[in-house]
Amino acid sequence: MQHAVSIVWFRRDLRLADHVALERAARASERIVCAFVLDPVLLRGPRIGAPIVSFFFDALAQLRQQLRLRGSDLALLEGDFATELCGLSARVGATALYFNLDYEAQARARDAHVTASLRRDGVHVESFTDHVYFGAEETHKADGAPYTVFTPYKRRWLERLAADPRPPVESLAAAAGKLAARERIGDTRAVPDPADYGHAHSEHFPQGGEATGRETLERFVTERIGAYAAERNLPARPGTSQLSPHLRAGTIGIRTCVAAALAARASARGARATGIDTWLSELIWREFYQHVLANFPHVESEPFLPAAKQLTYRDSPADWEAWCQGRTGYPIVDAAMVQLNTYGWMHNRLRMIVASFLSKDLLLDYRLGERYFEQHLADADVAANNGGWQWSSSTGTDAAPYFRVFNPTLQSKKFDPDGAFIRRMLPQLAALPNSALHEPWTLSPLEAEALQFRLGRDYPYPIVDHAEARARALAAYAPVLGKHSR
Q1: What is the pTM of this model?
Q2: Structural domains of the chain ordered from first start
Q3: 96-100, strands of its sheet edge to edge
């Protein structure tokens, strides 16, 4: 069926290239109106923070600019999704709405409400897989059950890739000449400032936008992917792709990323091939956590493992505040939290270290940390964030065994051996020798006097003894999760 006018509802897909809903709408429509709905309740709510708001608003501004360069515009709406989209469809005479799926529970409820409302108005509604390479139902086991362990899921995913590769869709070419004229869309509100919703902007936050995402991908594949396997765990090195905020907001498409990896892999050898394979595996981890969220939606609010609901956590506001503020006395933990609080991003290895420290060393509820990350990360993705926290706290699918408790000092010495990252984030420790940088409490009195450094004044004492905290964690976890150990 051909539609005179269709609406493409943008959400976590703020780009024009490799956009499934846009491409499908272009096939079936004479004119396309692009729309985004701001949710003031969500924007002011406790589960969203300044870095992600800033990133999304950057992306919206770039999307609008690209549409205006093509003579069109972004219909930027604000309020109840169904009310706003029904009103827009009536105003522009749209008979169809196209959008890409989102597996988060709140999004599913929203989408069901919008779909029902528009269909009551006689509007045709279709949704598509776009945020993930394969839909959650496309990578089940042979018996139809969803996977709960990554390695067999990865094998299945790679089998699907070999049998059904999905190159980037030609959405921009398909939509050329079909984007509704700006005057047809009418007046639409300006892209707001984060401060309008109580969020402070920082020049340190990652910058959003489709052009930025594409440049980030090209730079990574051209310059750094060969060293990815060797350097991705070193926080002092620019060894990661930096694409997670772009994948979260959809300013780069997952098919575009996979296609770039496969194209580079075709001629790669040695370390470069290993780096590409390792990065592709990380993209599959992202797919796995989306698969888990879609098939086990309860993980958004509770542990995947039923037994883990019986864990008894400590209630220590002082320890919680020390963790949040980077005042635990463990330099690698504190440096990581400074990075998070300042830059709206944290290196993945550090995410595991601080998550283990909170849930094991401090024995605090992992959901506190999960929520804190949501509020402070520009790539705050419910599926990946929840998956990472449940892995570290041994409560989720394919989780670390309960007795795996990261030693923050050993992690620091292994992954920041010369202390470059710690010194960058914690300048108060910059003068300490490597021998004491990872554990300042070992600095001798003579060394401390020579450096005019005093523990407790210039840097806090450790809030826990790791060995004692580990024993406490094992005593709490073993009776509950002992049978789940591997």
Answers
A1: 0.96
A2: 1-131 (3.40.50.620), 132-168+210-295 (1.25.40.80), 306-481 (1.10.579.10)
A3: 74-78, 29-38, 3-9, 96-100, 124-128
